[in-house]
């Protein structure tokens, strides 16, 4: 007995053939006129009908075997066939790759798009990768901990999503750009080795294939140095590729290391692509870029943290922290795969005085330091251990390993390049009553404003 979807139906004179599909693959059904009821039912079957069949598995007659599919040497001779549900004509065919189908249409009907072979495989391989990461962290002694999504801002250099509070009108939660502060606080708590498959939110102007929410393998450890983190992450990547993508080859082990200075001088990039043959889908070039600058200036000339303000400056550069911050290097590192940044982290500050100095160098007013980061400074006064960590971008890693150019291809329900969810229809207006409950008033839209002004 099997159940699944009618992938393709072919009438061959008397015989009816249906390719029945489920998650595991396809099997050919053959329905002969002798089985009258089944035959009658099979006549009505159309693409993507949901079927239940019972019958006998038989070897396909010689010559009829199809070596391209796993079940190609057998077929199921159907005795009983039940249509469990019907299907309208689909907006696009799911028995073919949807690469060339309009992406908006694919996203609107994502649940159909995900029926296609490539999208299904991407989803399953993503599961395998994430499971591997989780198991690896577990065997290395890491504890998985969930941290809150309704919280206060944590600076990672992006704009934040805010959530109005109903119970505290006029106040807002912020969705975390990363669990950065929580994971550091877990080190102060004595957890020693933390990880999380963490959802991160960043309200960026959408560039190419960025997503407003994305997943990281987020990690933090106590009593470690940069070398320990590099060793653990190299081990993870090497084992992951060996186990899940045995056909792929890592160009160089241990992964080459470049300082940020060297990378910029030699390649004019902080994520150079070190592949020898970019056409070879099985070549993977992994490398580390280390010793990033601690600060950089934006277009307006304001000093900002290159990684984030919890990153520790190199001890030998500390003397010029205030006098020449741009010369200060950080204990920060990125991991690069085929020219893509797939992760980054740093050894953190665990000393209250140094953390306070860094906030001051960043030009944050004393009052704001206390308001925004008082809890971190406070925590560092209660026996904070030396600690550091890293976060790997799961979407990007899965996309590269699956040979996809866009991360949307490896996310089941992604947003468009304009940060819209076309399937659910988000973002959307909400009821006036909901706004009232939240104590929020909509500002008149621009068009409305113009009208009011002209009236005056
Ligand atoms: N929180 C950092 C990020 O999201 C990663 C880290 O420093 O561990 O990029």
How would you portray this structure in words?
- There is one protein chain.
- The chain is an alpha+beta fold and 456 residues long.
- The chain is 28% helix and 25% strand.
- The protein has twelve helices and 19 strands.
- It has helices spanning 36-44, 103-108, 110-113, 117-139, 180-188, 226-244, 260-267, 352-361, 366-379, 394-401, 432-438, 446-455, and strands at residues 2-12, 15-22, 25-31, 50-59, 74-85, 143-144, 162-164, 172-174, 193-201, 213-222, 249-250, 257-259, 283-284, 286-290, 295-297, 303-305, 332-337, 340-347, 387-393.
- The strands form five sheets. Strands 6-9-10-19-18-17-14-12 form an eight-stranded mixed β-sheet, sandwiched between helices.
- Helix 4 (117-139) packs across helix 10 (394-401) and helix 8 (352-361) packs antiparallel against helix 9.
- Mean pLDDT is 95; it is low at 450-456.
Helix-strand layout with pairing:
Layout: E1 2-12, E2 15-22, E3 25-31, H1 36-44, E4 50-59, E5 74-85, H2 103-108, H3 110-113, H4 117-139, E6 143-144, E7 162-164, E8 172-174, H5 180-188, E9 193-201, E10 213-222, H6 226-244, E11 249-250, E12 257-259, H7 260-267, E13 283-284, E14 286-290, E15 295-297, E16 303-305, E17 332-337, E18 340-347, H8 352-361, H9 366-379, E19 387-393, H10 394-401, H11 432-438, H12 446-455
Parallel strand pairs: 3-5, 6-9, 11-13, 12-14
Antiparallel strand pairs: 1-2, 1-4, 2-3, 4-5, 7-8, 9-10, 10-19, 14-17, 15-16, 17-18, 18-19
